[in-house]
Amino acid sequence: KKGRKENVLIWFLESHNFLVAVSASFLLGILLDMLLKKLTGSEKIGYVAVTAAVVTAVFIGAYGTTLHALACILTGQVLLFAAEYDYATHTVPDYVPVLILMAGLLEVEFAPALLGLVLVPLPFVVAALMKEGSIGGGDIKLMGACGFVLGVKRGYIALMLGLFLAVLFQTAYAKKEDKGFAMAPYLALGCLLAMLPA
Questions:
Q1: Which pLDDT tens digit goes with each residue over 27-36?
Q2: 20 to 30 Å CA-CA from 183: which of 87, 102, 134, 166?
């Protein structure tokens, strides 16, 4: 009976932590929604609260209430912000990569992180040098920061997933008169998927 009571108590505490974290993410998402509307002047913003809660639930489900889960959650929140901002304005603010780097410092291993910072955005740098206007500087900095968090292998997985999703959705849904599109939503989704357990 004693062991059973201890199991119930552990389950309650874990469930309590889970509910508190998801609720806090939802409230943070509401604040991010309001901030995004103010910064971008767009009324199309409105999904960050729900997706922030889902991202938190997924990472706690995958990693428990650990420091790694917290780093993933914080990075995820910033990526959601970047995706919505880029969708509304076709730009990624310079402070976004800084916030991602700060989240990555929670559990950094400097050698893989620095390699990721330099190598992951390299294909974008090459593309930008070969053809002016092909890749925005914000996307390059975003992937550099994500490379710092993810390392080289997962960083490249995130990059490839993001590009694949961008090509897939743009082929299916883009109109012929569209000359450009926001890349950050696809890159953000690629990074979120790459942060999940293999």
A1: 888 888 888 8
A2: 102
